Amino acid sequence: MTITITAFERSPDGGKGLARDTRVRWALEEVGQSYAVRLVSFPAMKEPAHLALHPFGQIPTYEDGDLTLFETGSIVFHIAARHAGLLPDDANARARAITWMFAALNTVEPPILELGSARLLEGDKPWQEQRLPLVQDRVRVRLNQLSVRLGDADWLDGAFSAGDLLMASVLLRVKASGLLDEFPNLAAYLARGEARPAYERAFAAQLAVNASAPRPD
Ligand SMILES: N[C@@H](CCC(=O)N[C@@H](CS)C(=O)NCC(=O)O)C(=O)O
Predict the structure, then answer these.
(1) pTM: predicted TM-score of the whole model, two decimal places
(2) What is the pLDDT of residue 206?
């Protein structure tokens, strides 16, 4: 049975790895699982056929036989639970790696997404000048806490895991802001993630889609 995921036909970031299909591609590449990709346009994501797969009309989705999943956390967990390589065998180490998956998506990502919204969607608002530093500081608080915990370790808890995959994917979203550079160990952590051959393959695959996507006139 072929695994099929969905991805943007044309990603708003032009293929810099920020669209969340990259996380799923990365997980599949880490475990050596081949997959097919169905590209969807923004209008198609809101049509009934896609809404039947994803109730919120987003990407990515994951289909394998009669199983359909949405939410990258759930998809990456599913992949990690069924294949060796992304979760430790030891029960306690596995539980800790899963904890880092939740921490990435529930604790670290929200202020980073808020910063993205503040910049992209609210840039022209009159209160932006006051709000932006507050939002940036909320990101700094989380990055500082994460930085302290990581210390000089390569990964969050022993060997690279699905927790690192999601955490690095989340940090990727703040890289362009320059905030990550205030925390050299986190910048190095992300660079280690990006240097993994599985990430490089995932990145190249989503970039290839966007490089060949038709541009608006
Ligand atoms: N929590 C969801 C978020 C999914 C999400 O925000 N997907 C974005 C692409 S990265 C999307 O489809 N945006 C288009 C839209 O919401 O209309 C997940 O982790 O899968």
Answers:
(1) 0.96
(2) 95
Q: What is the pLDDT of residues 77-88, one digit of tens each?
A: 999 999 999 999
Identify whether the C-beta of residue 4 lies closer than 8 Å to the C-beta of residue 35. yes
Lining residues, ligand 1, CB within 6 Å:
19-20, 45, 57-59, 71-72
What are the pLDDT digits (tens) for 124-167?
A: 888 888 999 999 999 999 999 999 999 999 999 999 999 999 99
Going by alpha carbons, the residue nearest to atom 3 of ligand 1 is 71
Contacts of 9 (CB under 8 A, 6+ apart): 39, 40, 41, 44, 209, 213
Classify burial at 166, counting beta carbons within 10 Å of its beta carbon; exposed 0-12, middle 13-18, buried 19 or more.
buried
58 alpha carbon to ligand 1 midpoint, in Å?
5
- Nearest protein CA to atom 18 of ligand 1, as residue: 71
